[in-house]
Design a protein that fits this description.
Pfam families: FIBP. The protein is mainly alpha-helical. The protein contains 21 helices and no strands. The termini are far apart.
């Protein structure tokens, strides 16, 4: 039954939390004639309690889709059928909390392709919502803010709760697991590769508590930050730094962060700073649209980058990583009207030139 109607897809696409029906609620089959309540969108057999508005909204949506005319059903039958779907979804939701159970259960005859659809849609999230909670602790304190987040983003409160609970559930399952973070999520929640990697970014940000809510960071989308998370997981975690270590992707490698402190010599030693600048400028002369600005501001930019890197052994500085990058590097580049390609060329040459310096070869 749950796969025979387009209502399954409609409910999941809407991103609503599937709420259980109230005890004794729901209308019986066959109540009311075809003309009763159809025009007004209020079928005669109405459920009672907190679920009534959701069911009636769903019935109204189905009426407007023309299903009564297509099937010849009465409004009462439509009401009863919709309530049946809600009851079914209530039972399905428990299985969706642990997706492998959905695959192995025998109660619901759901084709594999539709099972995959249900799982994917249930765990899909709104970018506007995730952007508001990204980097925050997935705790009761944050959950209390969901009313305000719902108002700010326009995402329904039910959907906000579902998405938050999904983030928290995934986090709890994988936070202590070794190996690939995205791989663990994909294995235990049967998500697509893309969605698993997005959840990996959410877990990574929540674990390291990166600050993303400051006003100056609001121009960054979830996609921007997820891209950063993926690169950091690939390059800054224990397993990434040492291929022989099968460690957790959620943590930054402490030895790697400690090693970054050695970069301070790049700005503390005047001769080394001048030599580094000379190497970068020689390589980029004629290649940057803002070469004069880069040459004049090189030392300030270098100090900004090195100071950020050398302080990442402190928890607070890790949390403020993106704030510091915007303040000390991105905003100065933006004020000098750097193009994206200018930034890319500069950073590539900046890091490559270091290997030509004594002590870094």
């Amino acid at each position: 039954m749950c796969t025979g109607s387009g209502w399954t897809d409609t409910r999941v696409r809407a991103g609503e939390r599937w709420e259980p029906p109230p005890p004794g609620g729901g209308g019986g089959r066959g109540g009311g004639g075809a003309g009763a309540g159809v025009g007004a969108g209020r079928p005669s057999a109405r459920p009672h309690g907190p679920l009534s508005s959701s069911v009636n909204d769903a019935v109204g949506l189905r009426v407007r889709s023309g299903i009564l005319e297509q099937t010849g059903a009465t409004a009462g039958v439509l009401q009863s059928d919709t309530m049946d779907h809600y009851r079914t979804f209530h039972m399905l939701e428990r299985l969706l909390h642990t997706p492998p159970k959905l695959l192995h259960q025998l109660v619901f005859q759901i084709p594999p392709s539709r099972q995959a659809l249900l799982i994917e849609r249930y765990y899909t999230f709104d970018e506007a919502f995730v952007r508001e909670v990204l980097g925050k602790k997935l705790s009761k304190g944050t959950k209390k803010d969901l009313d305000d987040i719902s108002t700010k983003t326009g995402v329904t409160l039910k959907s906000c709760r579902r998405q938050f609970d999904n983030f928290k559930r995934v986090f709890k399952v994988v936070e202590e697991m070794r190996g690939s973070l995205a791989g663990n999520i994909q294995q235990h929640f049967l998500l697509s590769d893309r969605l698993a990697r997005d959840y990996a970014a959410v877990v990574f940000f929540a674990n390291n508590r990166f600050e993303t809510g400051k006003k100056k960071l609001q121009y960054l989308t979830f996609g921007d930050l997820a891209f950063c998370a993926e690169l950091m997981i690939q390059n800054w975690t224990p397993g990434a730094v040492d291929s022989q270590v099968d460690d957790m992707d959620v943590d930054l490698d402490k030895e790697f962060l400690q090693d970054l402190k050695e970069l301070k010599v790049l700005v503390a030693d005047k001769d080394l700073l001048d030599l580094h600048k000379s190497l970068v400028c020689t390589a980029l002369r004629g290649k940057l649209s803002i070469f004069p600005e880069m040459e004049a501001n090189f030392k300030n930019l270098s100090r900004g980058l090195v100071n950020i890197a050398s302080k990442l052994t402190h928890t607070k500085d890790v949390r403020d990583l993106f704030v510091d990058l915007v303040e000390k590097f991105i905003e100065p580049c933006r004020s000098d009207r750097w193009l994206l390609n200018d930034v890319r060329l500069f950073l590539n040459q900046y890091s490559a030139s270091v290997h030509s310096l004594d002590g870094f070869r």
